[in-house]
Write a structure and sequence with these properties.
12 helices, 322 residues, 42% helix, six-stranded mixed sheet, alpha/beta
Length: 322
Amino acid sequence: MTFMQYDPEKLVDKNHPLRKIETTVSFDSLAYRLKDLDNNLGRKGYGAEVGLRCLYLQFHYDLPDRAMEEQLRDSLAIKWFCGFEVGEQTPDHSYFGRMRKAIGTKGIAKIFNAIIKKAENKNIVRNVFAFVDATAIKTKETTWAERDKAVKDGVATLNNSNISKYSADNQARFGCKGKSKFWFGYKEHACCDMSSMLITKIAVTSAEIPEQKAFAHICPRNGQMVFADKAYCLKTAQLEMEKRNCFSAAILKNNMIGKNKDLDRWRTKIRAPFEGIFSKFEKRARYRGQAKVQLQAFMDALVWNVKRLVKINAPPLFLQAA
């Protein structure tokens, strides 16, 4: 008797967390949005659904490609979730890079937006109060190698005007928060629905772009009230809110007319529970280039949303395939 005779459906515990994920967010119903890729993912044509499931699990369990290869080969639950039989050959580590390239940022955006749209239709996302914020994504901890190259060229200072010439990631930039927090990489901007704590919009810019200028990428709609920190009380962000018919609940700077300290203290308390969302995100860039880091941001947000849907015991978003 061989392993081929065993049914993975019966081997995986009925209470395994992946079963709840499968019930809440039906990946087979999502994958048809990537149906054009069915013949392009893997040497054996694993298909878009297998690729999407593998990509989700990589971020769900925070696995690099080689670790994902091992888990897919050895874990019954992961085999079951990705649609492989017990004794069936699974992809090697090179498959996952090809799969990410084939799906791409646009493909993941379709999946992310489909989940949010279904959550809105089921009244899980209310679109009344929104929380917006940004966080740093580091490409690397130090830039000594880049500085050494610049010194050889006679460049006295390495900055955002010349870093692209020396960095392996020529789209990454130096960013600064406050007067002392510096990093090299990107900045992740997010909008969260405060009723469900689901992330509804996510965007990545290079690190030097201020929050108010990037706000257009994540500004909510439909007359929502936007809770935000002082970075969003400036003119550019305020005009974007007016354009989208939103109401500002951004904390004002101390020297601004109309500053109400009691009101801003209350807004700070309202915002506090939502700031912890970013603590669950990857603070390091897995890949090089803004488009690939955007894919990373989409996946971090997608995993957060799926876990959140499971936690609040949301009803199934999609009809299960027959």
